[in-house]
Amino acid sequence: MASLAANSDSSRAAGLTGEARTRLLEAAARVFARHGAAGATTKRIAEVAGVNEVTLFRIFGSKDALLDAALQACAHGEQPARLPNTPIDPEQELTEWCAQEVARLARSSDFWRQCMAESGSRRHHADDAGTVLSASASIVRAYVDRLASQMPLVSVPEREAAVSMLVAAVVSDALARDELPVFHSLSRDRAPACYSRAFLRSIGWPVSSTFDGATTVGRMRWEWFSPPESESDTKAVGDDIDAIAERAAVWSE
């Protein structure tokens, strides 16, 4: 009986420690995001977590260890959105992926901005943030490889550049839309679809001819001429019209 009671007390203590650890990690992430490493004092973190500083030091040993653990928890907690193993509608699939990734990163935008801002003094924070973004890039890169198995695309270096630009656009949208509005003129609702279409075009994948109710591919452009004054002018106009028709055929492909 005494053994059972001891085991019960031990399990209860472990449960309380686990709960306190989780609360401290969440509190450390919130305080760090708002105040940075210098302002994230152990007293402030403990108050937000609803525990005392003794508990903080007993579990983590130091503030730096707690902040590192909080960053690791954020970096490896919520995983990037996935893309289908078998692409069926790349334009729609990538649109949904972009929207989900922007939303995911935006939920912790203050935290990731702080990590990057302190990369000079705490390089490992920026490295862990880079791990999060590398995971997103790997998902898109693998998806592009699956697209390449269905039809020829641009060269591998060009595809890699396109992946980098897409992930950069998604990250900028999530972390800097409000701070840098000049780079984000597209609305939040419309941007993911535009990212998707621009990306697919850049790797050589065809996109739909209509978008947002307006034709974006195959749009005819008209040029106007003055009436011909002579037979030679008539022939010149005819040649010009033929040239325009050829260009229109190219634009409509």
Automatic annotation (TrEMBL):
It comes from the Bacteria. Residues 41-60 bind DNA. It holds the Pfam family TetR_N. One of its GO terms (molecular function) is DNA-binding transcription factor activity. Residues 18-78 form the HTH tetR-type domain. Keywords: DNA-binding. This is TetR/AcrR family transcriptional regulator. The lineage of its organism: Bacteria, Pseudomonadati, Gemmatimonadota, Gemmatimonadia, Gemmatimonadales.
